[in-house]
Design a protein that fits this description.
alpha+beta, 6-stranded mixed beta sheet, 5-stranded antiparallel beta sheet, 14 helices, globular
Length: 605
């Protein structure tokens, strides 16, 4: 951390503390510092909340244990992103993207952080927009650190991947990931007029939220699609895309499924965008199940309850009647609820049946014997080994435990989603859950071996929490990701090429087990020079759109590697690759919103 930056940080916080001290002597009471999550009305002019590179540790009772800022590599400069001029405020955005079932009270959402009384406008540091639509590392982080609104949401920050010299380490190894929660969480922040906290942004979940037109495999479980093109941000660099497409299994061909819905009915689930929306989501899932599928429902609050024993999915009236009795109230004993749900699911687990636990919650847990993610994981490990998979679905804001939801899904051999509207509930429970129940490959690992003759250095965008040690690639005891029927997985690398060489860029290897297998099979795919496009315009629309999404996510999380990158460039790139897709068109509007919010905050509005 530079001395100039340190002095500036101390000056800002010193001024804030002086303001608080002065306010305490007046007749009007002012909250100075609170550890409990708070809510406040969200407005388009609210400064973005949360520190992009803050590492937040939360104690088991939900209070904040520590907040520590990571040092910046360079001193922040007076640069900001300029507004696009698009009329896409929070109200318009909500209408365009699908609000929750009922308009819940607006809340200012942020990373959990010690709250300080709001500073008046003169205390908010204005930045000169010397480079419109440019974000320097730390710009968003500064704005979030100065925000005073606390939301009680918990995210785990991951240090971004840095460039690796190919001559020193040509191997890049990671597990497949098809989670999408991070993108939906960011969308909700933007719709409500705030930039998402940097630690909430996981690049791979932004990229994999969208579907890409990869041809399915002619044989086997999956196929790999490779492409590369020049960077729109730096003329000396290129981007490489690795796409994995799983085979498609029709609804009529898949195995019978047994779903155990574990529903959080604690008091924190009372708002319309939580339990009521979760109940509608389950009804959507049931509608899309087959006649051979069964459903069970377990609830948890202060205690657990068997709401519905295994019931044929065709008995819609009985299932709906059980759901309609659910009301929110009490504490949150997630651990005991999880254990009961798994005990139900394992009874149906067999080679011919897909057995899955689906958790619907805001992620908060405050009572019960299994509080920590590790304790819960240990308690269900034996069930995971018997073939039961886990899907976690998050709802609501204010005390959302994104860190817990993601860990449970990753370790439970499943997926993590976040539902912010009825529209998203349909996408997750109609397409992503019931449409891809069958796992076609498990413990899927990818390893890219770059050729040092062709590639000077490289960095993987995202997948930090899915990193696998290179030596563990062929260790079949090491857990990795799962791919469901029809899923595709996309990863992007930023690379610097060696000049004047026609050598292949890399070899991509994929290693995976059959759904019930114990030994993995491996395939290799050469990345020939012919897959390198001469220009970005010559690249496929899927390539250009995936790059736009990955770049936007990397910028929003404040990655130092994106210095000089532009949200305007990312938006323009996405606009030319929407191909009429509604999700892609929505993304373009969200980038426009992010630009407007970044520019407004930089100008001290």
């Amino acid at each position: 951390m530079s001395q100039t930056f340190l002095k500036r940080r101390l000056t800002v916080w010193g001024s804030t503390l002086l303001l608080v001290g002065a306010a305490c002597t007046s007749r009007a009471p002012v909250a100075t510092a609170e550890l409990e999550p708070q809510t406040a009305p969200a407005t388009p002019s609210a400064a973005p909340a949360g520190a992009a590179r803050d590492d937040v540790a939360r104690a088991s009772d939900g209070n904040i244990a520590a907040v520590a800022s990571a040092p910046r590599e360079k001193e922040d400069s007076a640069q900001a992103v300029g507004a696009s001029g698009a009329d896409f405020g929070p109200s318009n955005a909500q209408a365009a993207m699908g609000a929750p079932l009922k308009a819940a009270p607006a809340v200012a959402m942020a990373e959990p952080a010690m709250r300080v009384a709001s500073a008046p406008a003169p205390l908010r540091r204005a930045k000169a927009a010397t480079a419109p639509d440019m974000l320097r590392p730390g710009d968003l982080a500064d704005k979030r650190e100065l925000s005073s609104e606390g939301g009680g949401n918990t995210f785990e920050a991951w240090k971004p991947n840095t460039f690796t010299e190919t001559a020193k380490d040509p191997l890049s190894t990671f597990a497949a990931d098809v989670d999408t929660a991070s993108y939906t969480v960011a969308r909700r922040y933007l719709v409500q007029g705030q930039l998402p906290p940097g630690s909430s942004v996981r690049v791979e979940e932004f990229v994999n939220y969208f579907k890409y037109r990869y041809a399915p495999p002619e044989k086997g479980a999956f196929t790999v699609h490779l492409e590369a093109a020049p960077s729109p941000f730096n003329p000396r660099r290129h981007f490489v895309r690795v796409g994995v497409q799983g085979k498609v299994v029709s609804r009529s061909q898949r195995k019978p499924a047994h779903l155990v819905f574990l529903v959080d009915t604690s008091g924190s689930m009372a708002s319309d965008d939580k339990l009521p929306l979760a109940k509608e989501a389950i009804k959507i899932a049931v509608k899309n199940l087959n006649e051979n599928d069964t459903v069970a429902i377990v609830t948890y609050a202060g205690s657990t309850r068997d709401l519905l024993s295994p019931t044929p999915a065709t008995d819609v009236k009985r299932i709906h009647a059980a759901l309609d009795t659910l009301q929110a109230g009490g504490g949150t004993s997630m651990g005991t609820g999880m254990d009961l749900a798994y005990r139900h699911a394992v009874k149906k687990a067999a080679g011919g049946v897909v057995s899955r636990v689906v958790v619907l919650t805001d992620g908060d847990t405050n009572i019960g014997p299994n509080l920590s993610p590790q304790a819960m994981l240990e308690s269900i490990h034996k069930y995971v080994a018997e073939g039961v998979t886990l899907t976690t679905v998050g709802f609501g804001m204010g005390n959302y435990r994104d860190d817990l939801m993601e860990k449970l899904a990753d370790k439970g051999n499943g997926n993590c989603f976040y539902v912010d509207s009825y529209k998203e509930a349909r996408k997750v429970f109609e397409t992503q859950l019931t449409g891809t129940l069958e796992v076609i490959a498990k413990d899927v690992k990818l390893q890219v071996e770059f050729d040092p003759v062709a590639v000077k250095r490289y960095r993987l965008l995202g997948y930090e929490n899915r990193n696998v040690a290179d030596q563990d690639f062929r260790d079949d005891k090491v857990d990795a990701g799962e791919i469901g029927a029809g899923h595709n997985v996309t990863a992007l690398y930023e690379v610097e090429l060696e000049p004047e060489t026609k050598a292949p860029l890399a070899t991509v290897r994929v290693r995976a087990k059959a759904p019930n297998g114990t030994e993995a099979a491996e395939q290799a795919f050469p990345f020939e020079r012919a897959r390198m496009r001469e220009s970005l315009e010559a690249a496929s629309p899927d390539f250009r759109f995936a790059l736009a999404v990955a770049a936007t996510a990397d910028i929003l999380r404040g990655n130092p590697a994106t210095e000089g990158w532009s949200l305007a460039t990312a938006q323009k790139l996405a606009e030319g690759a929407t191909v009429g897709d509604s999700d892609r068109l929505e993304f373009v509007k969200l980038v426009s919103q992010a630009r407007a919010l970044s520019g407004a905050s930089a100008r001290g509005r």
